[in-house]
Amino acid sequence: MTLRALKPPHETRTRILDAAEELFMQHGFEGTSMRLLTAKAGANLAAVNYHFGSKNALIEAVFRRRLDPMNAARIAELERLEKDAGGRPLTAEAIIRAFIGASLRMIEDTKSGGRNFIRLLGRTYTDPQKPIRALIGQLYAPAMERFKAAFVRALPQMPAEELVWRMHFMFGTLAYTLAATDTVQLIAGCKPEDRYDARLLESRLAAFLLAGLRAPLHNIDVKKAA
Amino acid sequence: MTLRALKPPHETRTRILDAAEELFMQHGFEGTSMRLLTAKAGANLAAVNYHFGSKNALIEAVFRRRLDPMNAARIAELERLEKDAGGRPLTAEAIIRAFIGASLRMIEDTKSGGRNFIRLLGRTYTDPQKPIRALIGQLYAPAMERFKAAFVRALPQMPAEELVWRMHFMFGTLAYTLAATDTVQLIAGCKPEDRYDARLLESRLAAFLLAGLRAPLHNIDVKKAA
DNA sequence: TTAACATTCAAACGTTCGTTTGAATCCTTA
DNA sequence: TAAGGATTCAAACGAACGTTTGAATGTTAA
Fold first, then answer.
1. Label partner for B184 (CA 20 to 30 A): which of A143, A156, A166, A169?
2. Would the CA dihedral through B115, B151, A182, A176 be positive or negative?
3. Cα-flanking dihedrals φ and ψ of residue B214, to 5°?
């Protein structure tokens, strides 16, 4: 009478994480009940509290599972580029592509649920709950520091304050692009199949971000610096 | 014994809308209970259902109250610019500023709650609930069409498909910038007071978006067009 | 085989949710 | 002042929520 024979043993945790990823993306954290979640995962209602402790701890686990390797890959890619470059600073474009590539490639991962996660992630940067935003910020902190330092070396002429703003804008563009994948588009007209082509999207986004990052400084900034 | 003497008559609707705006921003739609909301508004628990019909109808009213005038102002500003220009196409920068100015100016409106709304709005573009996203898209549609046409005239050499993507990116940057005001920043370093200076922010953002919009086309796009 | 531990299970816990109800009160108009 | 509609009120509705419980079942090692 039990389904256990069909399920791999010791993988209830993984099935719960997969189900949570998809349902959190579809309905949000508060809109996803433990009953719906455990049903989708083929687990008992009590399984989440047994394996993770609470719903909030599950949310945290969902992000840790994907974000830690993703940011590690970002840092590794940056270090590889820096090693190849010898002592010379990297180009801004290379740094941008190293940062956005890691997330954009996950859009194509429909099998293991990477696309679900990446949409969820893009939205969670602006989640109403402060602890959740703080968690994201904490998981990003090491990579963020490394990339900021790389940009400073790549663009020595740019005022530090201005760089921070432009990184902020770049990050926002990426976050929205990730979150808006699959969703209703405000602007009609783009071919739906292009939304899932990571290589094409990376080139489009990199061109946009690179130009924005290197935009001429406006006089109002000069006035402010005076 | 009643508080009514202290409250302006016939303005329960407005007080509810104001409270909803702030609480939806702080805790999200599902995280805001009718009990907390009506308590903050100084109204009875049943007041929302009496005046609006349901919680969902209240959410819709919150957005209609602000978005309709905001997009009307956008269109009016665009028409004013076009009238002043005679038959000549506008500059891309003028179009960008006409679009982002309307929302950025609301950041400084702390008295009537405009800042609350603008943060709420920035986040809601990527809300998990499809009906909510559809509402936003519907309220934006008329302005979006006008601005797209203006960009096409301003940048006749740009392929239509590319323009759509770049508008998408621009819109995302704006949405994130609005949503992230007041919140924990991923990148440390920018002066907090600058986040509320609409003029400064508009110049910074306009410079970034203008450069991104006019970025050189990458070869991958050429290959795709072939 | 048996003891010890890990996991799953059905059931119930107390709380909070959005909504509804019908009486009480306010406000306008006649 | 009386009537009638608009609004507010306290109270309750049933449903759904996250979590806990203790017994049942599965797994591992002596």
1. A156
2. negative
3. -100, 20
Q: Residue A122: its pLDDT value, please?
A: 92
- Give residue A50's Cα distance to chain centre: 28
What letter represents residue B200's amino acid? L
Residue A38: which of A3, A68, A66 has the closest Cα? A3
- Residue B221: pLDDT over 90: no
Inter-chain touch B165–A123, beta carbons under 8 Å: no
> What does the alpha-carbon distance between residue A162 and residue A145 come to, in Å, rounded to a whole number?
16
Give CA–CA dist B13/B16, Å, rounded. Answer: 5
Closest residue, CA to C1' of D19: A49
pLDDT tens per residue, range B131-146: 999 999 999 999 999 9
Report the pLDDT averaged over residues A49-75: 97
Protein CB footprint (7 Å) on chain C nucleotides: 7-12, 16-22, 25-28
* Residue of chain B with shortest Cα separation from A176: B172
Residue of B nearest to A161 (CA): B190
Among A182, A107, A18, A25, CA closest to B128: A25
Tokens of B168: 């998408």
- CA-nearest residue to A195 within chain B is B165
Q: Among partner residues B144, B164, B186, which is closest to A137 by beta-carbon distance?
A: B186
Q: How many Å apart are CA A202 and CA A18, to the nearest integer? A: 26
- Report the run of H or E that residue A101 belongs to, with start and end: helix A92-107
Residue closest to sugar C1' of D9 by CA: B44
Q: Which nucleotides of D are covered by protein (CB under 7 A)?
A: 7-12, 16-22, 25-27
Mean pLDDT, chain B, as a whole number? 88
Q: Where are the beta strands (DSSP E) in chain A?
A: none
Please answer yes or no on whether B31 and A128 come within 8 Å at the CB atom: yes
* Binary contact (A28, B30; C-beta < 8 A): yes
* Cα of A8 to nearest chain B Cα, Å: 31
